[in-house]
Amino acid sequence: MLKKPKKYTTAALIAPRKYDNSKLKSSVKSVLSQKRLPHFLIIVNPKGYDFSKEVFDLIPDKSDDNLRMITVENNRTKGISGALNSGIIQIKDLVSDIDQTYIDFLDCDVKVKNEHLEICSKYFSENDVVITGTKDGIYPQGFTNDFIFEDLFNEKENIRFSDMCINLKSILLAGMFDENLVSFIGRDLLIRLSEIKQKIISISTETIDYDVKEYEEDSNSKEITKRGIQLFWDKYSPRLPKSERKKYINKAKKLYDINLNTKKKQVKNEEKKFETLFEPFHLIIGVIHGSNQEIKTLLKDIIALKKEHFVKGIDTVILENCSEEQDLAEIDRYLNQISKDSIIIPKKQQIKDAKKGMFGIPFSRGRSQLPISKARTLLQKYLYVFVKIKGEQNSIIWIIDEDMRIHKKVHQYIPLVPAFREELGIDVLLGNFEGGSPNPPINAVRVQLLDLFNNLERLNDHDDEEVLDDHGDKNIILRKKYPDYYYDLSRRHYGHLESPYWLNKNDENETVIKFRKRIFKNLNKILTGEPFFRPLISDIPNNPLKKVKTSANRGGNAFIFNHDTLRKTPNPTITIDGEKFRRSDMLWALINLYHYNYDIRFVDFPVYHEGSVDVEPEFDISKTVGELFGASLYAGLSEFMSENPNCCFKFDNSQLENICNITIDYLENRRKRYELNFKRIQGLMIALEKYENFEEVEDFLLKLKQSFSKENIEKFRKKSHIKDIQELKSCLKSIEKQVVEYSNAEDFKEFLRG
Q1: Is the pLDDT of residue 372 over 60?
Q2: Residue 3 has pLDDT above 50, yes or no
Q3: Are 461 and 241 in contact (CB under 8 A)?
Q4: Would the CATH topology of 9-217 be identical to that of 277-436+539-615?
Q5: Measured between alpha carbons, how far is 36 from 54 in angstroms, rounded to an integer?
Q6: Domain boundaries defined on the chain
Q7: How far apart are CA 244 and CA 248, in angstroms?
Q8: According to the model, what pLDDT value does residue 87 have?
Q9: Using CA atoms, how far apart are residues 399 and 407, in angstroms rounded to an integer?
Q10: Which partner for 354 in 287, 365, 426, 552 could form a disulfide, CB atoms 3.0-4.6 Å apart?
Q11: Ramachandran sector of residue 583 (left: φ over 0; alpha: ψ -120 to 50; beta: rest)
Q12: Per-residue pLDDT tens for 659-690?
């Protein structure tokens, strides 16, 4: 019987690039002929194809527990990087100890020699990465230009991913393979492994046989290589001094016959202006008040908007919901500048109205801060009654969060807003954001730490008084290619996760030393959610009326044309095991979309999200868990309702079971993405230790290590499970009840008189 290694768990991972059964079978046979078998043989299938039929019969004894063969579908980016990462995640789910697990990466056109794994395993105890068939030695523990570029432009790429056996924990700390790259992915991963100080050894023993002839005759492979060089260059060239870039450009031309595109794309900041064909309109703005400091800035913006010729008038309705008592007289002074009818509804009035049953079943409001779902429900009911009393039935209601800013772009597009009602008959128009992400800050820490490290690396070979190049053109390409470029947990794409976003200069003369100081001054924004490294940038479409799409993806920027959507539908409050679900505003949109068949659309009309200025730079576990639960429930309900649009939120037991299963699937997938991000964040913290000699970085790393401590991550793991499915079913049943109770409530009008 063939024996497996005693101490380490090993997995051979094959990701076929082509539907070539003969090549794959040959590769699998070579794996199975080794002196030491891996514990797992993982084969990643392209979507819609299953290789298991071709290779399963190659395993001599299917009952032998020494080896498990598993096929996995590539559910990430199409191509080799996404396939390999799908396999890595599968292996992570299979093993109990990632520290003691090594992955042997193989291409389908290679054969391993029978001593391959036996030789590699001899080095596992002292090394994280074993590279075979190269010059003996230890690779540099950190970035050097020669390491990245010199060997790259030799006649052959002498480091391939299939030359490497890598520790699983090391792979996760390094962020796995970059799914934006199409070739040179092994070199790229090796660079990141060296940045996080992993032990890398190369040995000259050749244990892999390559089909070099096939590559040389394959024109498609050559084109992929050329495209890969350009992508690799785009990723790393900003870290090169100007003086060194030219020699690598020349080498690429000489050895690969490729002209690297080094021209900067011209960025045109076109100011779009839309004229309305309609009469000036009346706007009623609704805001939940949590902080005087934040809402005052928004009120100043509203006062400025009031001066526009297309606005007939503006009233503002503010719902007091502060955690601590604030000076409301100060807010009143601003409201008086907007209109004589603008009001703030204090807690004492809310207490009276809640007791009377204005928002459904009477409840004791108390003086503490309401959960956001309940506060949104109160605000929208007050807005509905306000419009009814005032007699402005044709008014447009605009509900925005207090940390939003009415910046220049709003003044450009808002004249067109009435056209969505008059020409398209829309009931609700959902807008977008710029600046900071509306998600919890934790959901963007990974990509911003990547940006921090790469932007600091970029400064290394420059004098303090030197002026840097800008690379805003590369940022534009990243944003266009990956719309969720700012978001660690995207389900739409993964290629942005290891693609740096380059910070631009404040002005043409900003020197390296000033640039570095600006970075250090803004480090805490990575943890507070304020925009710095990857600000959201939204492009207003040229013809917005043709770019609207049906959506329930509501946030803190919504125009309400049909006021009944506010009267009939609450923001449901969902609580399980003491954790309050977030995203109640999206559930509100789903109910209006499917229960009442209202027309809810989205368009790229942004407000600027400044982010909360008083947020502590820390991992808010409760908020993150609420977001995780809310996002999963919203995704589950969205999928179910899109397939069953006529059930109108009246769910039978079978439907409840179905929704719960879909929701749990989304929850588990999202939890896995959090786990992967936590590992990469830990890896980036290791990389940033290089800059601990700067006091600001040292202090920031201390906050990071406290936020992402083992205790906090374990606390998140425990809280992020829905333990009782019956409780989730009860919450889903309660949605219809909440809708009925709210829509049947009376409209009390006394609040206008306080």
Answers
A1: yes
A2: no
A3: yes
A4: yes
A5: 23
A6: 9-217, 277-436+539-615, 441-528
A7: 7
A8: 96
A9: 16
A10: 365
A11: left
A12: 999 999 999 999 999 999 999 999 999 999 99
* Residue type present at position 175: G
Q: Cβ distance 81 to 496 under 8 Å?
A: no
Report the distance separating Cα 526 and Cα 256, nearest Å: 40
Q: Is 480 exposed, middle or buried (0-12, 13-18, 19+ CB in 10 A)?
A: exposed
CB within 8 Å of 218: residues ≥ 6 apart: none
Q: Residue 322: what residue type?
A: C
Judging by DSSP bridges, how do beta strands 600-609 and 549-550 pair with one another?
A: antiparallel
pLDDT for residue 297: 93
Give 373's contacts (C-beta < 8 A, 6+ positions apart).
Answer: 571, 572, 573, 574, 580, 581, 584
CB neighbour burial string for 375-395, b if at least 16 within 10 angstroms, e if fewer? bbbbbbbbbbbbbeeeebeeb
How far lies 40's CA from each of 127, 269, 602, in Å? 21, 53, 46
Is the entire prediction scored with pTM above 0.85? yes
Distance, CA of 205 to CA of 694 (rounded, Å): 42
* Strand 281-289 to 311-320 pairing: parallel
- Residue 163: is it exposed, middle or buried by C-beta count within 10 angstroms (0-12/13-18/19+)? buried
Let me know: does 25 contact 118? Beta carbons within 8 Å: no
Where residue 175 falls (left for φ over 0; alpha for ψ -120 to 50; beta otherwise) is left
Q: Strand, coil or helix: what is 373?
A: helix
Average pLDDT, the chain: 87
Print burial letters for 255-272: b (CB count within 10 Å at least 16), e (below 16).
ebebebeeeeeeeeeeee
Domain 277-436+539-615 of CATH type 3.90.550.60: yes
Report the alpha-carbon angle 303-308-312, nearest 5.
Answer: 90
Phi/psi of residue 44, nearest 5 degrees:
-95, 120
Distance CA 260, CA 250 (A): 9
Q: Which long-range contacts (CB under 8 A, 24 or more apart) does 695-704 make?
A: 696/520, 696/521, 696/523, 697/520, 697/523, 700/523, 700/524, 700/526, 703/524, 703/527, 703/617, 703/618, 704/449, 704/527
Q: In DSSP terms, which residues pair with 319 in a beta bridge?
A: 288, 345
How many whole angstroms separate alpha carbon 176 and alpha carbon 450? 13
DSSP character at residue 511: B
The two tokens of residue 421 are 């009602």
Q: What does the alpha-carbon distance between residue 180 and residue 450 come to, in Å, rounded to a whole number?
A: 15
Strand positions, DSSP E, 544-584: 549-550, 557-560, 575-576, 579-580
* Choice among 29-43, 263-277, 608-622 with the minimum mean pLDDT: 263-277
Q: How many CB atoms lie within 10 A of CB 488?
A: 24
Cβ atoms 460, 468 nearer than 8 A: no
> By three-state DSSP, how is residue 294 classified?
helix
The string of pLDDT tens digits covering residues 618-659 is 788 888 898 999 999 999 999 999 999 888 888 999 999 999
CATH of the domain spanning 9-217, picked from 3.90.249.10, 2.60.40.10, 3.50.50.60, 3.90.550.10: 3.90.550.10
Residue 142 pLDDT more than 50?
no
Q: Which helix (H) or strand (E) holds 701?
A: helix 695-707
